Amino acid sequence: MKNSEFEIHPFNEVFYIESLLNKTRSILNDVKSLNKFWKNGIHHCKNDDAILDILQNIIGNVGAISRFFWPSKDKGYYRIRGEKLRKIYDVSDSSILKNRDMRNLIEHFDEKLDNFLKEFNSGTVMPKYVGPISYVNDFRTFFRAYFYDKHIFKMLNVEFEIEPIIAEINRIHEMLLLQQENGGRF
Fold first, then answer.
1. N or C: less crowded end of the chain, CB within 10 Å?
2. Which long-range CB contacts under 8 A does 87-95 form with residues at least 24 apart?
3. Cα separations (Å) of 24 from 64, 162, 168, 171?
4. CB 80 within 8 A of CB 6
C-alpha cells in the first residue's frame, strides 16, 4: 500500500477513539483530584507531592495525545494519520497540544534531568514548590513547581499553562464521547 492510499478505515475508527478517550479520561480524572485539594480555596502543604505528581501525569498524558496528532516519525502512514486526526478533531498546528517541550520533557525525562542538574547548582534549586508566584524571586530554580495563582506548572525550568491545556483536552474529550455514542465512528 502506498502512503497516498493510507486511510483510517471505518472499522478502525473505534480504536483511535478509545485510545484517545483513555488519555482524556485520565487527564480529566486528574483534574478532579486536583480540584479536591482546593476545597474552599484552601491549600494544605501536606498535599504538595500529590499535586505535583498529578500535574506531571497530566503533562505526560497530554504528550501521549500530542503524538497521535503529530507523530514522532513524521513520515508515511504516521504523518497521514496525524493529519487526518487533526482534521477530525479540529486541532491546528498552533494548538497548545503541539508543544514539543511538553512531549520531549516526558519522553526524554532522564536526559533532561541530567542536563538540568548539570546547569544548576544544587543550592539554587528547590525540589518542590506549590504556592503563589509572588513569593518567588528570580534567583530561584525549581525541579517541580505549581504556581496556583497563575495556574502554571513548572518542571525542570519548563513552564506549562495548565488552564488552556485542560480546556483543549476537555473540548476533544466531548467530541470523543459523542463519537463513542455514535458507535465508535468519527
1. N
2. 88/186, 89/172, 89/175, 91/168, 91/172, 95/69, 95/168
3. 10, 14, 10, 10
4. yes
Residue 60 to residue 125: CA distance in whole angstroms: 23
- For residue 116, what are the CA distances in angstroms to 58, 89, 110, 120? 21, 35, 10, 6
Separation of alpha carbons 90 and 95, rounded Å: 10
Residue 11 and residue 7: Cα distance in Å, rounded? Answer: 11
| Structure-block grid coordinates of residue 46 | 501536606
CB 79 within 8 A of CB 87: no
pTM: 0.90
Q: Give per-residue pLDDT as tens, 7-66.
A: 888 999 999 999 999 999 999 999 999 998 877 677 778 899 999 999 999 999 999 999
How far is 165 from 151, CA to CA, in rounded Å?
11
Contact predicate 178/161, CB 8 Å? no
